Amino acid sequence: MLRVAIAVMLLFGALPAQATEAGWALLRNGGHVVLLRNAMTTGTVEPPNFDIEKCATQLNLSDRGRQQARKIGALFAARAAPVEKVLASRFCRTLETARLAFDDQVVEPLATLDKPTEATAEVDVAAILDIIRNYSGSDNLVLVTHLENIQALTGASAREGEALIVGLQGERLHVLGRIVF
């Protein structure tokens, strides 16, 4: 019984590494879309006085999250994963993740990638799908967004700072690979 338990732990412990390597293999070839959840934050709930224009009223990256964002950028460079464009939610934590990870010159804020509300969720998901559907670059497109958008688009979850490489299958998004940072 102990051997079975150890084998199961080893198997599941190896899965993130295998998923990460498969994800890097996809990105090296370019032409893919990456949904990247913002790096680690200082909490879990948006403060009640939230204002999109004021970072002091939002959840922000923790020091560990800033390190994680820099690591993301360094690994994209080290793994030769070319990035053509980075679109990010206007929330401070997503913009900071994008700017620390990638060249600030290629980062564009985009309201469609903001954390969805009941009133905007359906329209935002449709707009994000249009961006993905119409992307035809030879390098990779990175969309830095929130868990809610990632779940609505793929049905999958993502940790803070995790990347999902996605592609269209018919009208639905399919997760092709993952990278855990």
UniProtKB/TrEMBL annotation:
The lineage of its organism: Bacteria, Pseudomonadati, Pseudomonadota, Alphaproteobacteria, Hyphomicrobiales. Keywords: Signal. CDD domains: HP_PGM_like (cd07067). It comes from Aminobacter aganoensis. Residues 1-19 form the signal peptide. This is Histidine phosphatase family protein.
